[in-house]
Amino acid sequence: MLPRSHLIILFAALLCSAAALPERGPLPLEKPQTLEKPKALEKPETAEKTTPAEAVPGKTDGGTDAAKDKDKDKDKDKDKDKDKDKDKDKKSEAAPDIKPDVKKTEPEKKAEPVLTIEPEIAADHATCLADLKALGASFKEVERIDDGQGCGIDKPILLHTVLPGVALAPEGTMRCETALELARWTKDSVLPAAKAALPDAGPLTTVNQASSYVCRLRNNAATGKISEHARGNAVDIASFTFKGGKTIVIEPRDEDSTLSGAFQRAVTAAGCLYFETVLDPGSDEAHEDHLHFDVLERKNGYRYCR
After folding, report:
1. Residue 77 placed within a domain
2. Of 49, 102, 131, 292, which has the most beta carbons under 10 Å away?
3. Which residues pair with 278 in a beta bridge?
């Protein structure tokens, strides 16, 4: 048994604790606390975010970091690709006119026609020479002309006189066909018109030419088509000289009411009966001081007379 003094102390302690209890109602129960799961058993947050393709066997947190690094590398690669695309765009914008120029010049070089001297049929040439002699023209045959670039005459002649007593000054090199039409025009049109319009001037003695064969482009231009003069098909008439000393110069005469004006207009109009092309001072500035005649053949027998 406990000593009596110990019992008295125990009893006094019981009385004190009973006095501290509330007067009504039961004692409140403490709210149960939920047990925390051990961290080791919790599912890692990265496991939910990591896709099967990103998961690396045998790695935990290190695998997620590697995946993030791969994503960053992919982003960098995308940025590099974008920068390359921008550089390409800048280069294409910086030189937009270079490629079109190459495309334009190449087809032009390929499309350039090869100019050659047209051969003349021997039989036709012989007939032309015979007809020219029959009209009384004087000339001589000269060697074939080939100046390159399509300039030249296969069977050229050097014409001295157009008709008996009517000189060509200076002498002109041309094809026989050109000389023949010049002689016919002079005989059938110029002589009758001069006799009617200029009876006091006397017989025609000289047809003054400004150009026969010459290797050049049309109207002496720097670019364009080759002139018919370069093929021996053309002759330019600058004036007419008569035995009495009078000279009729070719000039703009559309409003000239004199007999000289009538003479020029008459022989110009008649020129289209013999030549396929007739250009006078009224056609353009390049022909203000001469008549251009040529025998260029056109489709369906078309003639250009202005």
Report:
1. no
2. 292
3. 293, 305
d(CA 212, CA 292): 10
Distances in Å between the alpha carbon of 139 and those of 34, 114, 164, 230, 252? 134, 32, 12, 20, 32
Q: What span, in angstroms and rounded, lies between the C-alpha atoms of 192 and 4?
A: 183
Max Cα–Cα distance, the chain, nearest Å: 189
Map tokens 């409140």 to a residue: 28
63 domain-assigned:
no
- To the nearest whole number, what is the mean pLDDT of the chain? 79
Residue 251 CB contacts under 8 Å (≥ 6 apart), including other chains: 264, 281, 288, 289
- Is 26 a member of any domain? no
Overall domain count for the chain: 1
Q: Would residue 293 count as lying in a domain?
A: yes
Q: What is the dihedral of CA 117, 121, 125, 127, to 10 degrees?
A: -160
Range(s) of the domain holding residue 264: 122-305
Taking only the tens place, the pLDDT of each residue in 35-88 is 454 444 444 444 444 444 444 444 444 444 555 555 555 666 656 666 655 555
> Which helix or strand (DSSP H or E) is residue 160 part of?
strand 156-163
CA 44, 50, 52, 55: dihedral to nearest 10 degrees?
-80
Strand 304-305 to strand 277-279: parallel, antiparallel, or no bridges (unpaired)?
Answer: parallel
pTM for this predicted structure:
0.64
Instruction: Give CA separation, 113 vs 8, 119, 194, 203, in Å.
Output: 142, 17, 44, 47
Bond prior to 170 in cis (omega within 30° of 0): yes
d(CA 104, CA 89): 23
